[in-house]
Amino acid sequence: MTVGVNPVIADMILDSLFSGAAWTPPAASYVQLHTGDPGVAGTASVSSYATRTVLAWSPSAAGSKSISAPVTITASWAGASPETISHVSYWDSPAGGTFIISDQLVAAVTVITGSPVTIPSLTAPVSPVAA
């Protein structure tokens, strides 16, 4: 399984932390839906509904960052029906841009035409964290 931080982003963060290299974090983050593991580039198994949605985040705690409220991806599903969303990827842009991190949903979401897609929670984990 390849879910996790984009290796390029991980290297930039580590170089910034330990070598003083300049790194500018993304100004915003966007979620993209996937029907399977997004892969190392975040581009595999993209949902038929490929529009990314901007996210609002709560402050980080214990090596994890969570969205501040449930997010409705679309008010009326217009992708393939039915489709099961099992993974997400996070990006720095609504189109194109840089893949940041991916994760598997705690519970897959099956959507059908005309239904809204609400994801109750999302996290961007970094692990392990020393305890």
Summary keywords:
mainly beta; two-stranded antiparallel ribbon; 131 residues; 1 helix; 8 strands; elongated
- Largest beta-sheet characterization: 4 strands, antiparallel
- The structural domain count equals 1
Mean pLDDT: 88
User: What is the strand tally?
Assistant: 8
How far apart, in Å, are the first and last alpha carbons? 25 Å
Uncertain runs with pLDDT below 50, 5 residues or more?
A: none
Number of helices: 1
Which structural class best describes the helix and strand composition? Answer: mainly beta
Strand order of the largest sheet: 2-1-5-6
Q: Which geometry do the CA atoms define?
A: elongated
Taken as a percent bin, the fraction of beta residues is: 25-35%
Helix content: under 10%
Could you state the order of secondary-structure elements as H and E?
HEEEEEEEE
Rg over CA atoms? 15 Å
